[in-house]
Design brief:
- The structure is a single chain.
- With about 240 residues, the protein is mostly helical.
- It has one domain.
- About 80% of the residues lie in helices and about 0% in strands.
- Helix 8 runs antiparallel to helix 9.
- The radius of gyration is 28 Å and the shape is elongated.
- It starts with a helix and ends in a 5-residue tail after the last helix.
Length: about 240
């Protein structure tokens, strides 16, 4: 009797079993995540960056062009003082996810948090490079001195602020305080103002050092900045 019941159950399961869905494999392939190219990833992160960051970069370029057009001598000094704040803005934008507690949410997406941070750094780096590539020739054409000396003069404060801010933002104090990067930018800008206007002899000496060693100094701080960015990317998920 039990055997007949088991046979009946088997027959019923076979009779009412759901047929294999047609095109199942093709349908499952459509559900696989579409590969995202590097350019698409960069475009997505560019759209994520807040409007004030773009406006600050546009303001920097606008002030440069306006000052150069009227031959305002203080324009170069102003740009030297603004570049540290450009670096601080970029660092704060890079660390925005961690500062507002969104790191865990971004880690749960299809992209790793490290790839998101790296893409954001690349976009902000391109933005800063565009600002530099526009401002340096404009200032050199308006006030002389050559593109390379002028470029290194406004680049070095940017790199100093960027490398120092990245290092500080990884510290326990930096992860709890969002004002350290602007504070570093203020110190660097103040020192740039001091070296550029405090004493005529000091100014001449400072410019002479930049003409002779500006490129190696800029290269050193560029390597230091890349190193600090690499350390930030490596540590970003550890503190998420």
């Amino acid at each position: 009797m039990k055997r007949k019941k088991d046979d009946l159950d088997t027959l019923l399961r076979e009779a009412f079993a759901a047929p294999e869905p047609a095109g199942r494999e093709a349908f499952l392939k459509t559900l696989r995540p579409r590969e995202v190219s590097t350019m698409q990833m960069l475009r997505q992160q560019a759209a994520y960056i807040r409007v004030p960051v773009w406006l600050f970069a546009a303001l920097t370029v606008g002030l440069t062009i306006a000052g150069a057009s009227v031959h305002l001598e203080e324009t170069v000094r102003l740009m030297v003082m603004l570049m540290p704040f450009t670096a601080a803005v970029c660092v704060l934008e890079t660390k925005r996810s961690e500062r507002f507690g969104m790191s865990e949410l971004e880690m749960a997406t299809r992209y790793s948090l490290r790839s998101v941070i790296l893409s954001r750094m690349i976009v902000l780096g391109i933005l800063s490079a565009l600002v530099l590539c526009i401002c340096a020739p404009v200032l050199a054409a308006a006030f002389g001195g050559g593109v390379l000396p002028v470029g290194t003069r406004i680049l070095i404060p940017y790199l100093v602020t960027m490398s120092a801010s990245l290092a500080v933002e990884r510290s326990p104090l930096g992860r709890k305080n969002g004002l350290l990067s602007p504070g570093i930018a203020l110190v660097v800008a103040s020192l740039s103002f001091l070296f550029g206007s405090y004493n005529p002899l000091l100014v001449l000496r400072y410019l002479e050092v930049l003409r002779s060693f500006g490129l190696p100094i800029a290269a050193f701080f560029l390597l230091l900045t890349v190193y600090e960015q690499w350390k930030t990317i490596k540590s970003v998920e550890a503190f998420a």
